[in-house]
Design a protein that fits this description.
Number of helices: 5
């Protein structure tokens, strides 16, 4: 099986170029990222390529989450601790679940 190399931003100031890079940064499938772009996620067309700034994506995620803790997943992210934080948040803010 061929190994697929996932593009990631080297620094917050790097420009993410193309759907695969944007999707990898957000930890989502390309189809989800394209749907989010149609609903207002900050992306731009640069010539024939779609581009996004990591910092703008993080700000947009924060606004879309309406104050809920949001973090993009990376290979080094401890998802177990992130799940515990999310569950703790939901216990403290039960109305967020029903909204």
């Amino acid at each position: 099986m061929a190994r697929v190399k996932r593009p990631v931003a080297k620094a917050e100031s790097d420009l993410l170029q193309g759907w695969p890079a944007i999707a990898a940064f957000l930890g989502q499938p390309i189809s989800v990222v394209q749907r989010w772009a149609k609903s207002g996620m900050p992306v731009a067309h640069e010539s024939r390529r779609i581009v996004a700034k990591p910092q703008e994506l993080n700000v947009w995620l924060g606004r879309e989450a309406a104050g809920e803790p949001v973090q993009t997943a990376h290979p080094s992210t401890d998802l177990g601790s992130e799940l515990k934080l999310g569950l703790s948040y939901m216990r403290k803010h039960p109305r967020a679940v029903s909204a």
